[in-house]
Amino acid sequence: MSEISGEKSAYIFLDIDGTISSSLHSVEPEVAAYLNALAASGHQLVFVTGRSYLWAEKSLSFLQGSYLFSCQNGALIQEMPSRRVLFQNYIEKEMLSLLDRIAEPFRQDYVVYTGRENNSLCYYRESLFTSCQEKTLLDRAQSVGEEWISVASFRDLPVESFPAVKFFGGQNELQSIADEISKAAHLHIPVIVDPVVKGSFVAQGTMTSKGDVVDAVVEMKGARPVVAAGDDMNDLAMLRKADIKVVVETAPKDLLMMSDIICPPADKSGIITGLSQAIERLKRWG
C-alpha cells in the first residue's frame, strides 16, 4: 500500500468481540469514529470474526467506506459494502457422520450454522439436548438474532455445505471434543469464551482459521504490512501472521506472550490505544 502523510498505510485485521466491542450489537461511538478515520486515511480494515454472517454484518453498520469482512473464522471473505465474495471454504455435509461419531462418547451435540445463501439459518437436533440446554441456547440465539430450526436428522439439511458447526458448554469438555475433532476431521476448532452466555464457552469448527484470512488477503491484495488485533484463542493464527500484533490485556497467556502491543479492554475502548501505537510503529516501517 502507499504512503499517506508520511505514514505507511497497512492492512488492519480486527476481531470484533472483546477487541473492538464489548457489546453484542454495536461498537462504541468513539471506536467507530476512530476506525472510520483510519479507513479514510488509507488503511484497509479487515474484520475477522467468529460471529455468524447476519449478526456480524449488522454490528459493522457504522462503517462509512469500503472494507473487507470475514465471518465464522474465515469461512467466507467479502468485499463490503458490495458483498462480493472473494473466498469461501465450507464444510461438506458428508463430514457430519464423522462428527457424530466423535461427539457421541462425550454426550454432547452441536449446531450446524449455514451461510448467507441459506439466510444464515442454524439447525439443531432437539432430541439430543436437554430441555434446560435447549432453553439456554435458544435464548442465546434470540439475543443475537439467529434463527434456529429443529430437525430430526442432519440428513434433512437443505444445503450440501455450510460455514461452521458449534459446540456449547464448559471449557474442559469442549477442549476434549475439539482435540478429537482436530485430529480426526482436520477442522480448526478453537475453544473460546462465549461472548453471549456468561461463564460458558463455545467451540466453532470450520475448514479455515483466521490466519487463513490473512494469507488469502495477502495473496489477493499484496497486503503488507499487516497489523492484527485480537483477544481470544481463535485469534491466535491471525496474530501469528501479523507484522504488528495488538493483544487485549484480558487475553489468554498464549496471546499475551506473542504480542507487540498490549491494549486496554474493549469496554474501555482500548483498541484505540493499541492501534494508535501500531500506527506510530508503522512510521518507522522499513
UniProtKB/TrEMBL annotation:
Keyword tRNA-binding carried by entry: no
Keyword NADP annotated: no
UniProt-listed Gene3D superfamilies: 3.30.1240.10, HAD superfamily/HAD-like (3.40.50.1000)
A GO CC term attached to the entry: cytosol
InterPro entries (alphabetical): HAD-like_sf (IPR036412), HAD-SF_hydro_IIB (IPR006379), HAD_sf (IPR023214)
Keywords linked to the UniProt accession: Hydrolase
Domain of life: Bacteria
Gene Ontology MF term list: magnesium ion binding; phosphatase activity
Protein name in UniProt: HAD-superfamily hydrolase
Organism expressing this protein natively: Estrella lausannensis
